[in-house]
Amino acid sequence: MTTDRISGGVLVILSLLVVWQSSALPLGTFRQPGPAYIPILLALLLLIFGAFLAGTGGRAPKLSSIRWTELRHAVAILAACVFAVFGMERLGYRLTLMLVLSFLLRTVERRGWLLTSSLAFFLAFGSFYLFYTLLRVPLPQGPLGF
Amino acid sequence: MTETLQNLYVGFSVALTPNVLIYAFVGCVIGTLVGVLPGVGPLAGISLLLPVSFGLNATSAIVLLAGIYYGAMYGGSTTSILMRIPGEAASVMTCIDGYAMTRNGRAGPALAIAAVGSYVAGTISVIALMFLAPPLASFALRFGPPEYFALLLLGLLALAYMSGGSMLKALAMAVLGLLFGMVGIDPMTGFSRFSFGLVELGDGLGVVPVAVGLFGLSEILLTAGQATAPEVTKPRLRELLPSRQEWRASLWPIGRGTALGFVIGIIPGSAHIISSFVSYALERRLSRQPHRFGQGAIEGVAGPESANNSATSGAFVPMLALGVPSGPIPAVMMAAMMVHGISPGPLLISQQPELFWGFIASMYVGNVVLLILNLPLVGIFVNLLRIPYPLLYPGILMFCVLGVYAVNGSVVDVGIMTLMGGLGYLLRKFDFETAPVVLGLVLAPMIEMSFRQSLSMSSGNYSIFMTRPIALVLLMVGIALLLSSILAFVMRKADWRQRLGFAGAKQ
After folding, report:
1. Burial (CB count within 10 angstroms: exposed 0-12, middle 13-18, buried 19+), residue B120
2. Cβ of B230 under 8 Å from any chain A Cβ?
3. Which of B213, B340, B380, B438 is the most exposed place for a label (fewest CB within 10 A)?
4. Is A27 in the B-facing interface, judged by CB distances under 8 Å?
């Protein structure tokens, strides 16, 4: 299986999902397009491009040729971002970012405790001071005041 | 001419007063910072500081906000060149060759050319703004919805045509971006599309979380865990000056980028973003060695950087002369002017000459301030490369989260950034370009609106796109680009990209 065949197939599935989602909206007419008209038109274009890509992608690199050496780091970083999404307004900006930075530096990058804690503290509190205090950018503070 | 110079004299007498000068300086410094920080683009920076400007007089407020705008254009190139993270969306194209130059050990010259190109473009475009604003604005007035639709479509097709990889993949990505742009409330009927019950998606997907995710976060994901650290030649401070050959190679791209950026800037849309895309495509097309693009061609830095700075001035033409904001940033600036009881438009120049000409003069001053600030600071920015990446990327990630959150104060945006980061990672693994996705997202609402407005104008008759000369010409050019690629594919002939050894020139 080649990379183009797989990505073409994914694009086809995505386009069908868009058509299905759009079916709940008024399509309008050829002369007076409704809110679903352009999304469906675009989904059909994506379907054509996806099918074409899958059909002509026989000579693309094989899926097994892609190296995923950085996948563990990538998953950890994405997990940290997901934690930030759920933590920012519950724990507050400073505490959330300190935890995120500590996780990345200590667990993922295996740095020493002293460097991890000092860098995480400096970045989280320093950025909060710069943006919240000096530039008055509203940033969330959790129940603990952080 | 004499009258213009007299007015400019009045403008300088306003711009050089200590009070206004300080605000121009502060605006430029904040703008550069805003541009350097990934995710905190000029729109976010201006929006965040809008309340601060309410306490100032009208001239100081507009000078401060304009300083942030063009300061961000200067600063945005730095992280693009050094870390492949666009400080703001207009620097996306600078990432390609700017970062490649960094990998080749030419980060210093790339930064210096970006600063000089920005200065030259900024200064020349202000002169053009001063002399050419009225006739150019009247030309842009001829554009109705059909012309906008044709122009925006041409922009997308041109980007796909000029893309380094497969045109089929680039078009698929542009369509994906257009689909992302469909999220939110349909402005003509009020129906909510693809919002999945999230109120925050009512206004659609923000450009900032999508761009930061696709470009910034995906780069971190790809780079952070590499078995061997990415090889970066750390330049010494004395290596900052470009070579004579690099100066020569940059001269015309700076000139073309300046002219192109100014003209595109006048046309409503995200001009500073589009101009950098078009300038890059143009430079690659005109180059005798297009295979160098994507591998560290200095023209790929000089052109887009000049174009986005020039577009900044161009964008002020319709705002100041007609009262029509040409994009979200001029719209925010117009709001700031209105708070001060000033209505931008044809009467502004006659009724508030001190404000108009003071603003023009402050742009000259701002460009000088930025050059003085940025060239010496280039060395400091280069030193960022000396920090080990495992220590650097958590900080970059923090600014991505902070910058994305600060735009709307919404964690949903941080979630979108995370999703887009994952998507960008996979797309790049599968050899897709991500730039067309961002352009598609930016253009989607404008394309749809102009398409449906055109049909409303013609009572559903599609011939409106054929009967208006400007729209027809633009559409024909777009179709010609598309046909030439299809023809090459059908005839099983290598298209111009492959003939020129272009296939490897990826973003």
Report:
1. buried
2. no
3. B380
4. no
